Amino acid sequence: MNIYIASDHRGFDLKTEVIEYLKSEKILDMGPFEYNHEDDYPIFAHLVAKKVLENPDSFGILICDTGLGMDMTANKYKGIRAALCTDSFFAYRARLHNDANILVLSAEYDKIDFREIVKMFFSTQPSEEIRHKRRVKEIDEL
């Protein structure tokens, strides 16, 4: 399983921490590779969304200041189900009910425990219940 990760300038430090936390996983850094306040989140959201769509068994992680810009941008792509998760419960439900394929994190939300969120996101399997599968299909068909 590949995990593609990217951030903007505001998420750069947290991205570095997440990469270190997931060092045993196959994580592919899509940038930025140094802090630059000119880095725009739509560019990096596009890079990760494109890779996740090209590799259906992969996942993405996107990080910006609030997470909102990354979430909105990634969800413009048909087949992407990005979820902004501020705690492990949201990460659990994003995977269980919505089969989320991109985890979005906020770099500035100080109550975030990214380790618990990442752990829950990647340890939760999508529900096999027909109602949840139907709803995921409906999302993807929009």
Model description:
With 142 residues, the chain is of the alpha/beta class. It has a single domain, classed as Ribose 5-phosphate Isomerase B, Chain: A (3-Layer(aba) Sandwich). Helices cover 45% and strands 17% of the residues. The chain has six helices and five strands; from the N terminus they run βαβαβαβαβαα. The chain has helices spanning 12-21, 41-54, 68-74, 88-98, 114-123, 130-141; strands spanning 2-7, 26-29, 59-64, 82-84, 102-106. It has a five-stranded parallel sheet, sandwiched between helices. Strand 4, helix 4 (88-98) and strand 5 (102-106) form a beta-alpha-beta unit. Helix 2 packs across helix 3 (68-74) and helix 4 runs parallel beside helix 5 (114-123). The radius of gyration is 14 Å and the shape is globular. The protein starts with a strand and ends with a helix. The relative contact order is 0.17.
Low-confidence regions: none
Largest sheet: 5 strands, parallel
The class by helix and strand makeup works out as alpha/beta
Number of beta-strand segments: 5
What gross morphology would you assign? Answer: globular
What is the percentage of strand-forming residues?
15-25%
Report the mean per-residue pLDDT as an integer.
92
> Helix tally?
6
